[in-house]
Amino acid sequence: MFQNRMEGLALALPAAVFAAIVFLVPVGILLSEGFRAEGSWTLASYAGFFESELNRTVFWRTLKLGAIVTAVSAVIGYATAYSIVTLPPTARGRLIGLVVMPLMISPVARTYAWIVILGRTGFVNETIVWLGLSDTPIRFLFTETAVFIGLLQLFLPLMILSLISALENMPRDAVPAARVLGANWLQVFVKVILPLTKEGLVIGGTLVFTGSLTAYITPAILGGSKVLMLETLLYQRVTVANDFASASIIAMILMVMSFSANLLLKRLATARNKR
Amino acid sequence: MFKKFLASGVALAALSGAAHAADKTLVISVYGFAQDEFKEIVYDPFEAQCGCELVVETGNSVERLAKLEARKDDPEIDMAVMSTHDALSAARKGITQSIDVTRLSNYDKLYDIAKDPVGDHMGVGYTFYATSIAYRADEVEIESWADLFQDKLKGRVAFPNVSTNQGPPALYMVGKAIGDDAADLKAAIGEVAKNKDDIVTFYERSSQVAQLMQQEEILAAPIGRFAWGAYSKMGFDMAWATPKEGQTGGMNVMILTKGAKNEDLAYEFMDFWLSTEIQTKLAEALVDSPANADVEVSDEIAENLTYGAETVESLKLLEPAVILDNREAWLSEWNAQIGQ
Amino acid sequence: MTSRLLSYVTLTLVLIFLLGPFVIIVAAALSGGETLAFPPQGLSFKWVMKVFEVESFRASFALSMFLAIFGTLAALVLGVPVAYAASRYRLPFGETIRTIVSAPIIVPGIIVGLALLRYLVIPLDVGVGVALFIAHTALILPYAVRVVSASLDNLRSDIEEAAVILGSTRVATFFRIVLPNIQSGILAAFILGFVTSFNQVPVSLFLSGPGVRTLPIDMIWYMEITYDPSVAALAALLAFLSISIVFLAERFLGFSRYV
């Protein structure tokens, strides 16, 4: 550890100044714009924003889809992560590699695949009709279901990876011990696994939730103008109407939503800890 | 290995820089459809003629207009094409300048309605198109705009979003079909809203519809005739409806931005595009119907286009000023009834 | 035994869900038919070849490559000193500085793009290309700092201290002792930054101008106007590009230790 504090500051300053000037300042101005009307500070534009039924619908849809994607990915994530952690080391490494792989593929390509898969003549519908589950193909494209599937596929790996590292840090014999003492799997999960891995769940949950809020491609391609989310609404307000005021309001809402999700999840984690 | 990688990156960057370093550059903003054909028929020959570089930005009318407005004080675009009502809107916002038609040698050849459709020569018409319903003749029959909402098309039809060029005219015709064609379009929007769950999507770009049709996601959609070329090549039994209420449509115009940095080139390009030779080629490729009255095409081609003054006069068009003055109201009506 | 079976079933289903779409894309890309139908008709490379004929992709590929390489390098030049300062010095305002440099990861990309367009590109007449470069650099900075910090934390600092005591300058110590030892961490940061930048969409959404468009944005545009399997071919090619970079990195560096 070197003691010269000024030397350290000199090393760190260029990056901080760069990030502040080209990043924080423009973003800050943009976000503050939503609070300004005719030269004074006000919350009026926010009230006005939520007066529109369309905006309210989009807001709730974004929140709802984000929450569902997070919850479902947590359930699948635990099952997958536990299965991976209990494997022998080599197989574990390979599987982690396979889970990481989709993260490296362009989200445009990953989302586009669902158009091919979920279309009327796509793989899913061909299978459904072939199995006789339905006489006619089911409409998936441009529905909330399609957006949900797209988002889940996009962000599930983040949840799995967070839970894997949490499970790896868990004492190795905690689960067998609980089993020997007669706990069933549900009890083991609620009483042993969940408390010991909740930090991983918080990290994964925050990543998945904020990811779902701010994904643009998936709702744009799989939802279109019928399933608008906040991010696509923002884009539409700017490109169709040059409506920067609404854009900055939506931007602020998105930021607040992801920060509060982070806080809420952290709170949940510590609350259980105290008990 | 790493060094080589870096070097190739530098080379690539230098290359892309060099491409923009041509002495004369004209920046145009156009619709996104049929760009392959435009490149072959218009852009490449023009570049050869002027010895300049053409930079093309694409997008739908309203998006590009928004961008032009955002860059109003320092325009990066010299010349753009858009709908008559967007051109009128641009003129009112002071984004465009009056076109000196004496500098266009082909101006006198244009059909009269194309000569000054926006007023004050703020735009010159280069093509017009009919808007009607393209549909799969082997699956459905369409004789009226109201047939878009027939049982067979439930979950198999797309409709233009109100923010697009095709949206308001299509709504206007739906209004005619249900017996209420007031300019507020309230009744028509209500009719679409009633059926919104059966409409696959409200499309925002014409090109998107072709994709949905090709994937058999939809069987019918109101489209502009300019996009028809792609449908006739799909290998399906596609038909163009002649509904009993008539067809609607629109006109596209060229505009010159105020403060354009390459005004002379822009004039040269507009004149080139309006010439009989280029307009004929575009017509023959089924890209754009000619606005130049000297263009003559075979009957077969004419049948696939919106050809001749009589055809155009038969279209039930909305006036640009009507569209512009009502647009905000339509949008909020649409958002209230359909958006959520 | 039943639980073992259950975990195999889970893994299989999840992997099908995560990787299946990619397989389908590749199958569609190699289709001999004219449309994106499933199952694909015949086998052919014609759609893959068609992608290489699209002229605008060359310019947008070059731009995306440029941004990914030089944006990441710039982020490293800015980020490595921060990471070094944070791990080796008692840094005044350390927490504030850390928050500032990691802010770009928290703010949604679409907001970043819009903010730069509104307050940098338009009023100050900064070129769209420059704005893209700045945005991508800022975006990669948090990754660079995080990954390099992790690798610095694993490096014992007593060797450096010994070198300094023995009269080596700080700068020489850094370049002779620290840098060679964190080389693989820096490369890992480079690859992570490269992939992040190369696949980045929301930031670039508003930052495009006539003739200046990143590859993913160009691809979205192409997807909208094209409906034959060449779109799938493009998606598959891009996926292969990212995967092979990561695969090589993993092979030679054990990249996943740093992610």
Could you give a short description of this structure?
Chain A is mainly alpha-helical and 275 residues long.
Describe it for me?
The complex is a heterotrimer of chains A (275), B (340) and C (259). Helix content of chain A is 80%, strand content 1%. By secondary structure, chain A is mostly helical. Chain A has one domain (53-274): MetI-like fold. In chain A, helix 7 packs across helix 9 and helix 11 (230-241) packs antiparallel against helix 12. Chain A starts with a helix and ends with a helix. By secondary structure, chain B is α/β, with parallel strands linked by helices. Chain B has two domains: 21-128 and 250-313, Periplasmic binding protein-like II (D-Maltodextrin-Binding Protein, domain 2, 3-Layer(aba) Sandwich); 129-249 and 318-339, D-Maltodextrin-Binding Protein, domain 2 (3-Layer(aba) Sandwich), CATH 3.40.190.10. In chain B, helix 2 links the parallel strand 1 (25-30) and strand 2. Chain B is globular, with a radius of gyration of 21 Å. The model of chain B is unreliable at 1-21 (pLDDT under 50). The longest helix of chain B has 20 residues, at 320-339. By secondary structure, chain C is mainly alpha-helical. In chain C, helix 7 (158-165) runs antiparallel to helix 8 (170-181). The longest helix of chain C is centred in the N-terminal third of the chain and has 34 residues, at 55-88. The chains are: A mainly alpha (275), B alpha/beta (340), C mainly alpha (259). The interface between B and C is medium-sized, with 33 and 23 residues.
Layout of helices and strands, plus pairs?
The complex is a heterotrimer of chains A (275), B (340) and C (259).
Chain A lengths: L4 H29 L2 E2 L2 E2 L2 H8 L1 H33 L3 H16 L2 H12 L4 H9 L12 H25 L5 H7 L4 H30 L2 H7 L6 H12 L2 H31 L1
Antiparallel strand pairs in A: 1-2
Helix pairs in contact in A: 1-12, 3-7, 3-9, 4-7, 5-7, 5-10, 7-9, 7-10, 8-9, 9-12, 11-12
Chain B lengths: L1 H18 L5 E6 L4 H16 L2 E6 L2 H10 L8 E5 H9 L3 E2 L14 H4 L8 E13 L20 E4 L6 H11 L8 H9 L4 E5 L2 H9 L5 E5 L3 H5 L5 E3 L7 E10 L5 H12 L1 H9 L14 H6 L4 H6 L5 H20 L1
Parallel strand pairs in B: 1-2, 1-3, 6-7
Antiparallel strand pairs in B: 3-10, 4-10, 5-8, 5-9, 5-10
Helix pairs in contact in B: 4-14, 6-7, 7-14
Chain C lengths: L1 H28 L16 H8 L1 H34 L5 H13 L2 H16 L3 H26 L4 H8 L4 H12 L1 H17 L2 H5 L8 H11 L4 H24 L6
Helix pairs in contact in C: 1-12, 2-12, 3-6, 3-9, 3-11, 4-6, 5-6, 6-9, 7-8, 9-12
